[in-house]
Design a protein that fits this description.
Layout: H1 5-8, E1 30-31, E2 34-35, H2 71-82, H3 89-95, H4 98-112, H5 115-135, H6 142-147, H7 152-185, H8 222-235, H9 242-247, H10 251-261, H11 268-286, H12 296-302, H13 306-338
Antiparallel strand pairs: 1-2
Helix pairs in contact: 2-4, 5-7, 5-11, 5-13, 7-11, 7-13, 8-10, 11-13
């Protein structure tokens, strides 16, 4: 996952020895924040695998401020059902294929409102925490940040921002996994609850606060842009996730946090933690209490062309692949900030 010099030097911290589970990946070539369109390679994906899609393809998010018509209530329902204050880039990217997204969310939303979904998202968070605590020890940051001039109020604001993404990312991973497994591999997921309790409505979702302030690349100065470049290169991504853009509200914190996290990316212990989270997400969608089916045929019936459906397969596969790493990264940042 990390092919650059950031991973070559390793870290001075001693990481626990964990069996290496390699993550298939394709290097790709990127042009700014949009991937070039190239369908010369087959999908070459495997159901249930933690795998980056091959080739180059566009990612065209529809941000909330540009949502209109039937997309507006779908975005609002998604945020309410998932209990998040922001529409994730994964959702925005799938929403570019509007007819598919509207039908996919209409099918999936009943699952997002169940006790099963809430329980499994909690499990993903707990699993990531267990993996990071056991195998990816965090370098304490609070004393260093205080020495830089950060007040307790500012540290609490950073922690609250990380908590927003820690709460929401597992839900987005489950959603992305369901879309990928059905669209790319023709699977009908779930529909036979393991327990009657799985169908119960989830507990009331309490508002998680305002949308965190995010520093877009055109807002950022040279120092933040340099960190963004390192993030994209190290994670093999054509864009910077919302989590890091929210952390960039405090530029010196982002520099410190990414400097601590960067050497871990690609280490066998890191890959193993990702694999555990990914496998739990795949197991989750297999047991959804309400059946979910949006296969290639349904994508075409919704109005997508075959080329659009193929492109969407790559887009959703990219997000499904990256989200397990994002969950691990945010977990590690939270632990480092708390110590």
């Amino acid at each position: 996952m990390c092919g650059g010099p950031a991973c070559a030097g390793g870290s001075s911290r001693k990481l626990a020895s964990v069996p290496h589970r390699p993550t298939p990946q394709a290097p790709g070539r990127y042009d700014g924040d949009t991937m070039a369109h190239d369908f010369s390679n087959p999908l070459n994906l495997q159901s249930g695998a933690l795998q980056r899609p091959e080739g180059q393809f566009p990612v065209r998010p529809v941000p909330e401020y540009l949502a209109d018509g039937d997309l507006l209530p779908a975005y609002a329902d998604l945020k309410a059902a998932l209990g998040v204050p922001w529409v994730g880039v994964i959702t925005q990217a799938v929403a570019h294929y509007r007819p598919f997204f509207l039908q996919a969310w209409a099918q999936f939303s009943a699952n997002a409102k169940t006790a099963y979904f809430a329980h499994r998202c909690d499990h993903l968070r707990e699993l990531a925490l267990e993996q990071v605590q056991a195998h990816l020890p965090a370098t304490p940051q609070r004393a260093r940040l205080r020495a830089m001039g950060y007040s307790e109020r500012e540290l609490a604001q950073i922690a609250a921002t990380l908590d927003v993404f820690n709460a929401g990312n597992p839900a987005y991973l489950v959603l992305a996994t369901a879309i990928k497994e059905s669209l790319c591999f023709g699977r009908t997921l779930g529909g036979t609850p393991a327990s009657p309790q799985d169908l119960l409505p989830r507990a009331a979702v309490h508002p998680t606060g305002a949308v965190p302030v995010m520093v877009e690349p055109h807002h950022a100065g040279p120092d933040v842009l340099a960190v963004y470049g390192r993030i994209k290169a190290t994670l093999n991504l054509p864009f910077v996730n919302s989590d890091y853009k929210a952390m960039a509200r405090w530029p010196s914190y982002l520099q410190l946090a990414w400097g601590d996290l960067e050497p871990l990316v690609g280490h066998p212990a890191y890959n193993a933690a990702r694999q555990q989270v990914h496998a739990a997400a795949v197991a989750t969608v297999a047991q959804l209490p309400h059946a979910y089916t949006m296969r290639h045929a349904e994508a075409l019936a919704a109005g997508l062309s075959d080329e659009q459906a193929q492109e969407l397969m790559r887009v959703i596969s990219l997000f499904q692949w990256l989200l397990s790493g994002l969950i691990v990264n945010v977990t590690q940042c939270r632990l480092a900030l708390s110590s």
